[in-house]
Amino acid sequence: MTISKKKVLYSKRFDLISHIPAIFTSENHTLPYSSGKKFLEHYSKTISYIPLPEKILKKQDFINTAIALSEEYQYDTDIIEYPTHLSVDIYTVPCCFKDDLKTTLTNLFLLGDEILFSAIHSEPCILLITIIYNTHKLVTSL
Length: 142
Description:
The chain has a domain at 49-140. It has helices at residues 22-25, 36-46, 53-57, 59-73, 99-111; strands at 47-51, 76-81, 85-92, 114-120, 126-134, 136-140. The mean pLDDT is 83. The strands form two sheets. Strands 2-3-5-4 form a four-stranded antiparallel sheet, with helices on one face. The radius of gyration is 21 Å and the shape is extended. The protein has five helices and six strands. It is α+β, with helices and mostly antiparallel strands.
């Protein structure tokens, strides 16, 4: 078997523009708010947050898992607590996650509610992994 041979099993590219709602691509559109400030004023009056007691009780597990990952694999990590959620930022170079590291990272992903991957353009390129752990549920009456 030759290692250099490869067989593409699936490949598809999507037109990203087709996923943008028409309101954002039309030249003759009006937004319901005259400014971002007016939108935020209206939005802040129509939202509320409901505590999630079971998530609040387990947030320390999320924090401990993030700290263990940072200390074990020496990742630069920030853990930030907001009134409604926790955010873990892990800074790493793009790499292959294997074995125990993959397991620990997967555990953190499973504890979290949202995951964001971002590239920070620097030398070397840094991959920022942000995991959000919600302690409150957003309810809106927009």
